[in-house]
Amino acid sequence: MVYLKSESEIEKMREAAQLVSRTLAEVAKELKPGVQTGKLDRIAEEFIVKNNGRPAFKGYGSRSNPFPATLCISVNDEVVHGIPGTRVLNEGDIVSVDCGVEKDGFFGDHAFTFIAGDTDEETKQLLRVTLRSLYKGIDQAVHGNKVGDISHAVQSYCEKFDYGVVRDLVGHGIGRSMHEDPSIPNFGKPGRGPRLRTGMGLAIEPMITMGDWRVKTEKDGWTIKTADGSMSAHYEHDVIVREGEAEILSTFDYIAEITKNEILETY
Ligand code: MG
Ligand code: MG
Q1: What is the maximum span of the chain, computed from C-alpha positions, in angstroms?
Q2: Is 1 among the domain residues?
Q3: How many domains does the chain have?
Q4: Is 260 exposed, middle or buried (0-12, 13-18, 19+ CB in 10 A)?
Q5: 119: in domain
Q6: How far apart are the CA of 110 and the centre of ligand 2, in A?
Q7: Is 195 in contact with 188 (CB distance < 8 Å)?
Q8: Ligand 2 center–CA 102 separation, angstroms
Q9: Which residues are paired to 66 by β-bridges?
Q10: Per the domain annotation, does 2 fall within a domain?
Q11: What is the pTM of this model?
Q12: How far, in Å, from the CA of 98 to the mean position of ligand 2?
């Protein structure tokens, strides 16, 4: 079931998405070599609660193994759903920080991959290409297109660089629930899949690897890693499908304001 959002609902979605954006910037301030990922999680949780939101990932999933944290922090070959804890970031780690918030009945869900300190040019290219592919997907999120137009734009761009496009995890609709229809794969054929209509809320999120696309789940039941151990990047925005041009509800501008981010300056 696809829900089209009214303008007043979109305003609430924007509030939720913007709270996630500001939370990612708070995390960015402290994300450096030597920091424990659990500390970043506490910063995010406090900030969200202080701003009248609810961390939407915490408790998500099955009753027997609910996700235990506010952020998903996925380092290097971890693709998504990494659990923050005692791990200490090292110089050159690439760190996907994914955050979900519920505010006033609506959800925001977006993600940025940071570098702890500095890393090599090959890894920076993975981040730049993944970020660019996100915007190439968003360019297709317009009324009258199909989901496959988004999927194909992401896949065809990333595969030019011989990168792997993760198949097992996909983007999704978003609004009154964190995950709504339709699914937004990062691979597919143009002109296929559900038709996009004005007022659809979408979370578009390329998950791209430097090697093969295959992934495996760790023993914790959450952390997804590349099967071949290659590095992986992940960026996510919340958008509204419109005529002519999608509207992006989330923003990386707060990250750019708070820290000097080479990827945002050079992608
Ligand atoms: Mg998502
Ligand atoms: Mg997310």
Answers
A1: 48
A2: no
A3: 1
A4: exposed
A5: yes
A6: 5
A7: no
A8: 13
A9: none
A10: no
A11: 0.98
A12: 5
Compute, in angstroms, the gap from residue 111 CA to the centroid of ligand 1. 8
Per-residue pLDDT of the chain (267 residues; tens, 9 = 90+): 899 999 999 999 999 999 999 999 999 999 999 999 999 999 999 999 999 999 999 999 999 999 999 999 999 999 999 999 999 999 999 999 999 999 999 999 999 999 999 999 999 999 999 999 999 999 999 999 999 999 999 999 999 999 999 999 999 999 999 999 999 999 999 999 999 999 999 999 999 999 999 999 999 999 999 999 999 999 999 999 999 999 999 999 999 999 999 999 999
Domain coverage including residue 133: 7-266
CA of 109 relative to ligand 2 center, distance in Å: 5
To which residue do tokens 């971890």 refer?
78
CATH number at residue 158: 3.90.230.10
Phi-psi region of 61 (alpha: psi -120 to 50; beta: other; left: phi over 0): left
The answer to whether position 100 is within a domain reads: yes
Q: How far is the CA of 9 from the centre of ligand 1 (A)?
A: 19
Ligand nearest to the CA of 72: 2
